[in-house]
Design goal:
This protein has six helices and 14 strands. By secondary structure, it is an alpha+beta fold. Helix 1 runs parallel beside helix 6. It binds uridine-5'-diphosphate.
């Protein structure tokens, strides 16, 4: 189908809106200017944020396409919107960590900034009312959130995406500290990497200064939040390809 027509809104989340299109297998994702943290308790609007996350996430998914990672992204349509395969999102957040910070330090009492010997993959049950609790693979299987086969694939894609993104960001002098992925199933039941990959969902530290170039600037009131997102976009888009 060549011409895609935007239809009615089907979902509004904290950072994005989803729309139907004239193709039942496709959705349009529109990025919003909203910031939220701490399970929606802290909120702000910043003009230009949606554009930056759309640009950054599109660029990253295009990079992953070139590397053969199966995902939902089709193309960026304009400054705020992208076209994607319509998927049913699995109710799991998949977090990959290279360096300790954030919730793992609070939960386990481990120090900040420890480089892990290998990437740590964690699963969280996506449920705002419960505060997205950490779960095991057995929880996911027994409660029907994902099959064993899904989880094997999810873990292997998550580790591969970590390798690919670590290399991508190394090349622009950014340390990929940790990030969150979401997965979905398309109409035929195929598992696809979905959602967004942006400074909202990753922790990026400047390799020489250690400056936070991600949503931690908002979470911790570090200032110049959009400047950090702009810096990530500048380095990503300006890199030698
Ligand atoms: N993350 C996310 N959405 C969430 C929770 C975490 O995108 O709902 C990302 C977060 O930006 C970080 C990584 O997942 O890059 C690990 O987050 P962590 O578990 O440390 O949680 P936080 O400290 O953000 O509560």
């Amino acid at each position: 189908m060549s011409v895609i027509i935007k239809g009615e809104q089907i979902y509004e989340g904290k950072a994005k809106r989803l729309f139907n299109t004239n193709d039942p297998d496709r959705t349009i994702i529109e990025y919003k200017d909203s910031f939220t943290a701490f399970n929606g308790e802290k909120r702000a609007e910043m003009s230009g944020k949606g554009r930056l996350n759309n640009l950054i996430s599109s660029e990253i998914f295009e990079y992953l396409s070139d590397k053969g990672v199966p995902h939902h992204f089709i193309e960026r349509i304009d400054e705020l919107c992208q076209l994607a395969v319509k998927v049913r999102i699995l109710p799991l957040e998949v977090v990959v960590r290279n360096i300790t910070t954030g919730s793992i330090c609070k939960r386990l009492g481990v120090g900040e900034g420890i480089r892990l010997q290998q990437p740590l993959v964690e699963l969280y049950f996506k449920d705002d009312d419960l505060g997205d609790p950490i779960v095991t693979e057995d929880h996911a299987i027994l409660f029907g959130w994902a099959s064993q086969e899904d989880l094997w694939a999810i873990k292997s894609v998550a580790v591969r995406v970590n390798d690919l993104l670590t290399a991508l960001f190394n090349g622009i002098s950014v340390v990929l500290v940790d990030f969150k992925l979401e997965f979905g199933k398309d109409m035929s039941g195929k598992l696809l990497l979905a959602d967004e990959i942006s400074p909202d969902t990753c922790r990026f530290w400047d390799v020489s200064t250690g400056d936070r170039l991600d949503k931690d600037r908002f979470r911790k009131d570090l200032g110049n939040v959009l400047g950090a997102y702009e810096e990530i976009w500048k380095r990503l888009s300006g890199r030698a390809k």
